[in-house]
Amino acid sequence: MTWKREPSTWLAIVGVLLLWASAFAGIRAGMRLTPAGEVGADGYGPGELALLRFGTASMVLSLYALGTRMRLPERSDLPRISLAGFLGISVYHVALNFGEVTVNAGAASLLMSAGPVFTALLSTLFLKERLTRVGWGGILLAFAGVSLIALSGGRGLRFTPGALLVLLAAGVAAAYSILSKQSLRRYTAIEFTCYSIWAGTLPLLLFLPGLLRQLPRAAPPATFAVIYLGIFPAAIAYVLWNYALARMPASLLSSFLYLSPVLASFIAWVWLGEVPAPLTIVGGAIAILGVILVQMKGYARQAS
After folding, report:
1. pTM for this structure?
2. What phi, psi does 216 have (nearest 5°)?
3. Are 42 and 222 in contact (CB under 8 A)?
4. What's the average model confidence in pLDDT over 46-52?
5. Eight-class DSSP state of 88
6. CB-based contact 108:160 (threshold 8 Å)
7. What is the C-alpha to C-alpha distance for residues 114 and 185, in angstroms, rounded to an integer?
8. 304 in a domain, yes or no?
9. Could you give the C-alpha distances from 73 to 39, 77, 89, 106, in angstroms and in order?
10. Would you give the DSSP letter of residue 230?
11. Contacts of residue 247, Cβ cutoff 8 Å, sequence gap at least 6
12. Does the residue 131 lie in any domain?
């Protein structure tokens, strides 16, 4: 298999990392989480936040689809697209939102870093992608770097029953990438993003009664945060992710997700003045080195 390392692909990856790195803060802002980890009275519940976020994304993408007269998917592809949307949108975001209520940031980042490992395993099974020993070593090295970043928070790693939800989110995110990769052979990135987000938003209508109750009393900053999540880390970032996914192996692309905690720490340093701890800097350097190893020597190109 060959893949296209074009400038546009790298720009898409950078865009995804920036937008998804901001999503964790946006989720907490939308739920107005208290220091005790409870949803604020003027915030959105985890399920309601997911519905408002992807309802917003669905409307934005619908405007694009109508404006460009985008084609509809083939009927034979609907089961795969629906499954991708259900897993990658409905299950992933509800599980992650509920998990973030009870799992501290360090534990959540550590659990989510299992996602690229799951993706690499599933890519081997279903896409016939093959990582070299150096590639697997790079993934483990990056995982170790993220572990150090998680430990550098100074509050330890607090695993609660919600940790299983975060781990579930990591697993279904990997499954979404595999299903997406198969569908992107037939559809463009923006077409598949539209289809999968629409399909994934439908099950979230389960939370519509709660959303209608919470909208009038939600603080404006919480609503603005969720709208931001819907337009940027959802609609735009998913298009960018699928664009890059169509042009490179899923196992290689997913390894870039190890840079998200590094990027989030850097953003907090520049934006909030939160100077990273020495352990964060060491962990970030290790994670970056691991990703470089995966990208440079990690893929067995002769695999079919």
Report:
1. 0.88
2. -65, -30
3. yes
4. 97
5. I
6. no
7. 26
8. no
9. 38, 7, 18, 40
10. I
11. 3, 4, 6, 9
12. yes
Q: At 299, phi and psi to the nearest 5?
A: -110, 130
Between 190 and 291, name the one with better pLDDT. 190
Write out the two tokens for 140.
């483990």
* Nearest partner of 8 among 299, 290, 243, judged by Cα: 243
Q: How far apart are CA 265 and CA 268, in angstroms?
A: 5
- Which of 263, 266, 259, 261 has the alpha carbon at shortest distance from 295? 259
Distance CA 258, CA 261 (A): 7
Q: CA torsion 162→23→13→197, rounded to 10°?
A: 80
Q: Per mean pLDDT, which range of 24-33, 59-68, 104-113, 204-213 is the poorest?
A: 104-113
Structure tokens given for 35: 């220091």
Burial 151-187 (b: 16+ CB within 10 A, else e): bbbeeebebeebbebbbbbbbbbbbbbbbbbebbeeb
Domain that holds residue 174: 7-297
Does residue 107 sit within a domain?
yes
Q: Is residue 258 part of a domain?
A: yes
The number of folded domains in the chain is 1
By three-state DSSP, how is residue 138 classified?
helix
Q: Is 131 helix (H, G, I), strand (E, B) or coil?
A: strand
Instruction: For residues 39 and 22, give the distance between their C-alpha atoms in angstroms, rounded to a whole number.
Output: 19
Compute CA distances 21 → 26, 195, 198, 233, 260, whole Å.
9, 24, 23, 9, 5
Burial of 97 (0-12, 13-18, 19+ CB in 10 A): buried
Q: What is the pLDDT of residue 303?
A: 41
Burial class (CB in 10 A: 0-12, 13-18, 19+), 211: buried
Q: Is-contact 48 211, C-beta < 8 A?
A: yes
Torsion on CA atoms 280, 262, 149, 95, rounded to nearest 10: 160
Q: How far apart are CA 100 and CA 162, in angstroms?
A: 7
